Amino acid sequence: MDSRSRTVTRIPVNAPTLADVAERAGVSRQTVSNAVNNPDLLRSDTLLRVQRAIGELGYVPNRAARNLRTRASHLVGLRMSPVLEGVATTVMDRFVHSLVWTSREAGYHVLLFSGEGPDPLEGYDDLLRSTAVDAFVVTDTYLGNPQAVWLRERRAPFVAFGRPWDDVEARHPWVDVDGAAGTELATRHLLDRGHTKVAWIGWRKDSRIGEDRRSGWSRAMHERGLSTTGLASRVEDSLGSGRDASAHLLDEAQPSAFVCASDTLAMGVLHTLADRGLHPGRDVAVVGFDDSQVAQLVHPGLTSVRQPLEEVAIAVVRSLEDLLATPSQVADGLLLSPTLVVRGTA
Amino acid sequence: MDSRSRTVTRIPVNAPTLADVAERAGVSRQTVSNAVNNPDLLRSDTLLRVQRAIGELGYVPNRAARNLRTRASHLVGLRMSPVLEGVATTVMDRFVHSLVWTSREAGYHVLLFSGEGPDPLEGYDDLLRSTAVDAFVVTDTYLGNPQAVWLRERRAPFVAFGRPWDDVEARHPWVDVDGAAGTELATRHLLDRGHTKVAWIGWRKDSRIGEDRRSGWSRAMHERGLSTTGLASRVEDSLGSGRDASAHLLDEAQPSAFVCASDTLAMGVLHTLADRGLHPGRDVAVVGFDDSQVAQLVHPGLTSVRQPLEEVAIAVVRSLEDLLATPSQVADGLLLSPTLVVRGTA
DNA sequence: GTGAAAGCGCTAACAG
DNA sequence: CTGTTAGCGCTTTCAC
Questions:
Q1: Which superfamily does CATH assign the domain made up of A179-306 to?
Q2: Mean pLDDT, chain A, as a whole number?
Q3: C-alpha to C-alpha distances, B83 to A86, A200, A255, B31, B124, nearest whole angstrom
Q4: Which A-chain residues 80-139 have CB contacts (< 8 A) with chain B?
Q5: Beta carbons within 10 angstroms of residue A6's beta carbon
Q6: Which sign, positive or negative, has the C-alpha torsion A276, A279, A282, A284?
Q7: Rounded to 5, what percent of chain A is helix, strand, coil?
Q8: Closest Cα in chain A, distance from residue B23 (Å)
Q9: Does A72 sit within 8 Å of B296, measured CB to CB?
Q10: Closest-CA residue in chain B for A58?
Q11: Domain A3-61 belongs to what architecture?
């Protein structure tokens, strides 16, 4: 036996076709097609007759045939990045939920695929060339984003969740959340509550997102004439890094509050506080980023910046529709504002 | 040759077809088709020539055309249940990741869809009749699972992640994780460490999964001749419920350890301990269920039962392949064992 | 081993 | 407004 044996039996045994409906309704196939796709073209009595036949037969258009004919699949491709255990997949997952929901209302379904090992483009290429999807939603555009460049070169339709940071060539539509505005919000919240030494724990300097979020913190500090010297730390996004960085900052600069680039890092701060018998919120304030499940469940509740992912999904789908309706359209970007979810730690 | 007028500006501007490859290789279209699907049928030199032509043109078979012809989409449908904020979507999301990954290796992609409001079947019906997917993966079979019954009646191919608890009519393939074994593991772990009063906080009695997990706890207790009277609480799956239930149990029965049906409930226990100045792991032991991100990040690390979702995904895809290859096959069930991830709280 | 026909079910383009 | 014609790109007969 060959490994590629295509002996697949299909689901509905005798699904009715356009022809069946046409016969039953006493019209031509085209009229049935119109009844489905352009009801306005039919006279109301004909339409009614056809619709009744459709209902009686339980007719549903065959996707494959329609796709072949219209050269559209009504599918949007989304690449699932490899699972990063412990890292905030939360954001991504919440976004997927919203995207699926929003897409449905626009008549689209979401096709999930995963990267083939090292080359993140491989998955895109196959789906694109096989016309399996109409467009992509690209989510990981943070670093040099090879996907965006590659997709642009192939003139593949896609909308990015994430700004084309330093890619001046970029002409694609994108939607993003203003991270700096979020951390600024968080920092101001702390300053308003009397804190003056607010520390920052963020990501390494090569992360554009990290630097953006950091800028919100420093902007809010400088705005009030406060110094940020010695109050910032840049580490990798892990629990241990957050713990170590906060311990170090606490020793060296005695901040009374921390703003972090992620909930993971903020949880690291909570570990340090617990180790030292300090109470989050009472002794030292902590703010995270992403409003993950952890933030909601941990004692006494982690104050965190929340991205409006539902709105992002809506905007992405809207861009997608524009893009597919008018392929050569001028690309636009949209920057949404996050909110601060205040809980016990701040 | 057909002078095809590419009016539509879809993704690939000039996607080569079978005919293009055939012309370039100097063979017929069918030979190219065979080269792709049944390479064994070709003479090696012909095969090589065709493959070179395919490579040079960058030919990829058109999915819609192939789907129409073969009546298969190589797509698996998965319904995303509405987002339940705060509740462990973690499991589901981890599973989706694994499923996408495993499916790819089997030549399948995952199509996400969402329920249309109240009726959870609506989404299934459309996809099924329109031949958009070859089969479904059904994940929420916990309660009376209307989907399973409905899908069975339509003779729709599907594999369930979750047992057909009390559905004796069920003949579909399923994969599940032995929750009772997990809680038994957790309870034994505590008993081995000297605890004798291990309390249970689980879900309400109408949850089959909840009762199953509870049975593992009581089995382990009785096995050692320990009483479970007054040590169990059944509540809804929320942080507040876990907090209240644990406070009540602590007052009434003074347990030294808690086993919970979810990480959410376990986090509720941690809240109670924090409120009373008790230290998790040192004063009172706590074990959760699902090994969510929270368990990994909270101080001092929540010991939790972890479901082998990667294995589940592999088994599900394998069942899917069997099912699609041999539709009338006898259904089988597979029960996998979870593991205990030991951290600071136990 | 390879090629020639015959559609899968649908819709764009026209004709009536 | 409705019907007729002609494929979309592919694979499944069945000749050669």
A1: Response regulator (3.40.50.2300)
A2: 89
A3: 20, 32, 37, 49, 18
A4: 80, 83, 85-86, 88-90, 93-94, 96-98, 100-101, 104, 109-114, 116, 123, 126-132, 134-135
A5: 13
A6: positive
A7: 45, 15, 40
A8: 19
A9: no
A10: B129
A11: Orthogonal Bundle (1.10)
- Tell me which residue in A9, A67, A293 faces B327 most closely, judged by beta carbons: A9
Q: What is the pLDDT of residue B144?
A: 57
Chain region(s) in chain A for CATH 1.10.260.40: 3-61
Q: Boundaries of CATH 3.40.50.2300 in chain A?
A: 75-176+309-335, 179-306
State the best of A62, A299, A329 to mutate against chain B, taking most chain B CBs within 10 Å.
Answer: A299
Which among A334, A333, A338 is positioned nearest to A308, based on CA atoms?
A: A338
Output DSSP code: residue B165.
T
Partner residue facing A110 (CB), from B112, B127, B154: B112
pTM: 0.91
The answer to whether the beta carbon of residue B65 comes closer than 7 angstroms to any atom of strand D is yes
Write the single-letter amino acid at B161: F
pLDDT at A109 over 90: yes
**Chain B 118-157 residues whose Cβ is under 7 Å from strand D:** none
Does residue A53 contact residue A47 with C-beta atoms inside 8 Å?
Answer: no
Query: Do the Cβ atoms of B110 and A109 come within 8 Å?
Result: no
Cβ–Cβ < 8 Å for A331, A172: yes
**Burial classification of residue A297, based on how many CB atoms lie within 10 Å of its CB (0-12 exposed, 13-18 middle, 19 or more buried):** buried
Fold classification of B75-176+309-335 is: Rossmann fold (3.40.50)
Q: Ranked by mean pLDDT, which of A37-41, A105-109, A119-123, B272-276 comes out on top?
A: B272-276
Angle at A51 between CA A48 and CA A52, to 5 degrees: 85
Q: Is the CB of A27 under 7 A from strand D?
A: yes
Whole-number Å distance between alpha carbons of B224 and B324: 47
CA A90 to chain centre: 10
Provide, in whole angstroms, the distance separating residue A72's CA from nucleotide C12's C1': 14
